[in-house]
Amino acid sequence: MSDGPDVAIVGVGESDLGMTDKIATELQVQAAMRAIEDAGLSLRDVDGVATNGSGTFPASSLSEELGLTPAWIDDTSAGGASWLMFIADAVAAIHTGACTTVLLAYGSNQRSGRTRSLGGTQFVRNDPPAAFEVPFAPLVPLSPYALAATRHMHEFGTTSEQLAEVAVSAREWALKNPAAFRYGDGPLTIDEVLTSPIVSSPLHTRDCCLVTDGGGAVVLTSADRARSLRKPPVSILGYGGCVDHAWGIAATPDLVRTGAWNSARRAYAMAGLGPADIDVVQLYDSFTITVLLTLEALQFCEPGEAGPFVADGRTRPGGAFPLNTSGGGLSYCHPGQFGVFLVIEAVRQLRGESADRQILGAEVALCHGTGGILSQHATTILGRPR
Amino acid sequence: MSLVADMWWEATRDLRLLVQRCEQCGHRQHHPRSLCTHCGSTDVGWVDAAGAGQLFSFTVVCRSASSHFDAPYVLALVDLDEGVRMLTHIVDADPDTLRCDHPVRVRWVRHPDDADQERPRHLPCFAIKEQ
To answer: What interface predicted TM-score (ipTM) does this complex get?
Structure first.
């Protein structure tokens, strides 16, 4: 892809966020139409559709709702990693001519619908490991991440204060993003994180992402067509994926060295770039520990060093390492499957549209999506229009 | 529940902790499956675990996910000496004193969801082994 990307991201959009009293499909459609409008395209231009998250036929159902008869669909089910995987799939589909213009659109009303609890158990299904793990009553998805945090602390001396810094930094960015759920809430302090209730030790409520309503959408088309559209096209420079388990907590190959190591290595190789070439980073921050594990996997710091790496405030606005500039799942929005929002913010940064939180001169952005319980990983590197 | 899962839980009625072993390559795995994930053989059998291992990681769950357990309880990953990792509970421990890599020993706890009075299934929980 790096030698001549022939597919580009041309449109992005969010739906209403927070507490909306809309149903999931309404949010999904709203985001979709905003992304199509952002691209300067019309609904009739879309002949490829990707989504997941609801119902038996997620992409078919969205197509039906939009009145589309797509040539290509994708409903890969890999949680928050899906949306980075969709981009790779869409690149291949457009490149091979299976379709010309792909819409990715997500929507969920999990806050107003009260359908989600991060400390719940609904994600444990009847998969084989469940027979051996459900009797011990883990909170899913929270407890597996908490187990990773305990082990990371043991091996590397990581502290609760360092974990808390991830949430504090996310809040600082959210205060600059009017769309963020916590926009008007003022700063968060390390002490507020540490004194919030522990749900599954060592993780507190403030170590956990939000549960909100919301939808997000992305439109891709050929680089040729992109040149005549409304917004400057964003290039897809590299991609890598890795799935190393599903819902088995004991089946996780390595709690502190996640599959993100493999997905990142593949993405860097495809892009011909390394960690030092990345200007702005968007990582799935389901929990504060997720960010530390992913920073190490992406080789922004040495293994085990992510705690001290973030502790000096370098990820906050004005710091040397701008991270999750939207406010992330911790403070901007988290309707589940946050991966699509990573792409939306990366594209806005590369276009120079991020207003008060804009990283000046951002030319290369990295997005990393994590699905399940550190199960699925996808890394995508995007480049500024040239 | 799969056939191998049934066999594994049935053994807990006799306080036997089974680990699946490949009869072809010797690989051991948990959870039990219909094939060996190392060599692909479907010739898989069992060994009895001795019940000793190490605490790999743990988390004190402060909001119970089950009507069978009152919070807080200690959810843990234990590495058995037989070379497999399993999800379990640490019982009879002060959470403040727990450390990863501590030696642990199986402590059978009656399965809270088994009506069989004579031979109930058991949960293989673990307790910290005194040094």
So the answer is: 0.97
Do the Cβ atoms of A181 and A213 come closer than 8 Å?
no
A131 contacts B9? CB cut-off 8 A? yes
Q: Which residue of B has its CA nearest to A197?
A: B62
Per-residue pLDDT tens digits for A146-175 = 999 999 999 999 999 999 999 999 999 999
Distance CA A216, CA A282 (A): 15
Q: Kindly list the residues from chain A whose CB atom is less than 8 angstroms away from the CB atom of residue B85.
A: 250
Catalytic, A106? Answer no
Cα separations (Å) of A143 from A66, A159, A346? 38, 18, 30
- The yes-or-no answer on residue A284 being catalytic is yes
Q: Which CATH architecture has domain A7-113+210-383?
A: 3-Layer(aba) Sandwich (3.40)
Per the CB < 8 Å rule, is A201 touching B59? yes
CA A169 – CA A184 distance, rounded (Å):
15
Name every residue whose Cβ is closer than 8 Å to that of residue A155 and which is 6 or more positions away in sequence. A256, A304, B100
Flag whether the pTM goes above 0.90: yes
CA distance A307 to A327: 19
CB pair distance less than 8 Å for B100 and A151: yes
DSSP assignment string, A166-194? HHHHHHHHHTT-TTSTTTTS----HHHHH
Annotated domain spans of chain A? 7-113+210-383
- Using an 8 Å CB-CB cutoff, list chain B residues near A154: 57, 99-101
B41 CB within 8 Å of a chain A CB: no
Tens-place pLDDT, residues A338-381: 999 999 999 999 999 999 999 999 999 999 999 999 999 999 99
Nearest to B61 among A133, A139, A255 (CB): A139
Cα–Cα dist A248/A123, whole Å? 11
**Phi, psi dihedrals of residue A347, rounded to the nearest 5°:** -65, -45
